[in-house]
TrEMBL record:
<dbReference type="InterPro" id="IPR029063">
    <property type="entry name" value="SAM-dependent_MTases_sf"/>
</dbReference>
<keyword id="KW-0808">Transferase</keyword>
<keyword id="KW-0489">Methyltransferase</keyword>
<dbReference type="GO" id="GO:0032259">
    <property type="term" value="P:methylation"/>
</dbReference>
<protein>
    <submittedName>
        <fullName>Ribosomal protein L11 methyltransferase-like protein</fullName>
    </submittedName>
</protein>
<dbReference type="InterPro" id="IPR013216">
    <property type="entry name" value="Methyltransf_11"/>
</dbReference>
<dbReference type="Pfam" id="PF08241">
    <property type="entry name" value="Methyltransf_11"/>
</dbReference>
<keyword id="KW-0687">Ribonucleoprotein</keyword>
<dbReference type="GO" id="GO:0005840">
    <property type="term" value="C:ribosome"/>
</dbReference>
<dbReference type="GO" id="GO:0008757">
    <property type="term" value="F:S-adenosylmethionine-dependent methyltransferase activity"/>
</dbReference>
<keyword id="KW-0689">Ribosomal protein</keyword>
<feature type="domain" description="Methyltransferase type 11">
    <location>
        <begin position="92"/>
        <end position="185"/>
    </location>
</feature>
């Protein structure tokens, strides 16, 4: 699979992401426009359904598919440095077939993987069958708080938000399931212009500017405590953000 080189030209506006962000910004401000709210919800729901269909189809080969564009090993070990040294419970949101879970088990007694794709959850269940330190939940990430069985010391969302129609809603859910003082580690692509990612990997967002993620996190109540940006061996750059839930 070819990756377009970074030509150094000014990036064109990411129209789809900008329209999605605009829809989200108005979704909760239309109290007297129920039909409009329903239409926006339907648009976002259809996007989520397409994503679930895609991930169900690639679940068995997802680990190898990712490596075609960006090897997860580049950032998985880095994630550990943004997590508490010892935790009772860590949630892995958008866990897929469970590739990150072995890393998280070095930091936590219990890891709970959550994914909206039933096939991804099935793959993870096979991989961790009989492991009492791993639990798996099939749930829409926008509703994860209602499915959470324990409060979390830490939550990781690694290369997940760019697949979601409503990232701010998921961030708010993460805030709910974290204990006071709990840590959220967000890993995602920095904003880019590689349009093939939409069709080939069901990306709804072409990465994110740090400032947008910062706004979403702070509006949800988080305090950003650390972040970094680093290059990979191709056109993509990766953002890692550590955010903390306020103490009571």
């Amino acid at each position: 699979m070819g990756i377009l080189p970074d030509s150094g030209r000014k990036k064109e506006p990411d129209f789809v992401s900008e329209i999605t962000e605009l829809l989200l910004s108005y979704k909760d401000d239309l109290p007297f426009r129920t039909p409009d709210q329903l239409q926006i919800s339907e648009i976002l729901s259809r996007r989520d359904q397409r994503n679930t269909f895609y991930f169900n189809n690639v679940a068995q080969d997802w680990e190898s598919i990712q490596k075609d564009v960006l090897d997860p090993a580049i950032y998985r070990k880095k994630i550990l440095s943004y997590l508490p040294d010892s935790s009772s419970v860590i949630y892995d949101l958008g866990c897929g077939p469970g590739g990150l879970i072995p890393y998280l088990l070095t930091k936590s007694d219990q890891v709970i993987g959550v994914d909206s794709s039933p096939k991804m959850v099935e793959e993870a269940q096979v991989a961790f069958a009989g492991n009492s330190h791993v639990s798996l939940i099939h749930s829409q990430l926008e509703n994860v708080a209602s499915s959470a069985t324990w409060s979390a010391d830490a939550v990781v969302a690694s290369m997940v938000l760019h697949h979601l129609s409503n990232p701010p809603a998921v961030i708010r859910e993460i805030y709910k399931i974290l204990k006071p003082g709990g840590v959220f580690c967000l890993v995602d692509l920095k904003k880019h212009n590689q349009e093939f990612m939409r069709d080939n990997f069901s990306d709804l967002w072409l990465g994110f500017d740090y400032s947008l993620l910062q706004d979403w996190l702070e509006l949800s109540g988080f305090t950003i405590t650390a972040h970094e940006e680093f290059d990979t061996d191709n056109v993509f750059k990766i953002l890692i953000i550590q955010a903390t839930k306020k103490e009571d």
